[in-house]
Amino acid sequence: MNSVIKSNIKTLLINTIRNKFTNYKPETSYMPFHTSLLGKDRIALFSFIHSLNTIF
């Protein structure tokens, strides 16, 4: 792979992650057991990471 392609891939990945940070809205789902067990912040973190995984 030449350096131009590597640079384009790097730029694409950076832009995708930045867009996800700025536009992320967690899906509203009712999970009282998970929320009470893990906490709202951890559920939000898991949701965000899972969203990134599905993008890539």
Brief summary of the model shown:
By secondary structure, this protein is mostly helical.
Q: How is this structure best described in words?
A:
With 56 residues, this protein is an all-alpha fold. The protein has a domain at 32-56. It is built from three helices and no strands. Helix 2 packs across helix 3 (40-55). The longest helix has 21 residues, at 3-23. The radius of gyration is 16 Å and the shape is elongated. The mean pLDDT is 84.
End-to-end Cα distance: 20 Å
- Helix content class: over 70%
**Largest beta sheet, briefly?**
none
> What series of H and E elements makes up the topology?
HHH
Compute the average pLDDT.
Answer: 84
Total number of β-strand segments?
Answer: 0
Derived structural class: mainly alpha
The shape is elongated
Number of helical stretches of at least 4 residues:
3
Low-confidence stretches: none
| Beta-strand content estimate | under 5%
Integer-rounded radius of gyration: 16 Å
